[in-house]
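PROTEIN DATA CARD
Card holder: Putative HNH nuclease YajD
Chain length: 99
Origin: Pullulanibacillus pueri
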Amino acid sequence: MTDTAFYKSVAWLKCRAIVLKRDHYLCQECLRHDKLTPANIVHHIEPLDERPDLALDINNLETICPSCHNKEHPEKGGGKRKKKMKIKVHKEMGNPDIF
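Structure generated from the sequence above:
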């Protein structure tokens, strides 16, 4: 099966929907850097061509934004880059005198 046929398959589309929902449509790479970035790309952590056995394994898939995907795959070119919305995440600490 070609990559194009795989990415149009019902199995992939269902798997992709599950991963997007699981990851709340947020870039997992950006989250690792405390940034909230909307995302709509499902990325194979272990590349599809190297590990076709993990093609539909949700533990090998994560949601990432176009910018992070371009960093993962510079060989595919960036095309037009859209400005991504970044939200800084700050952790609040409760007042210790209250507890």
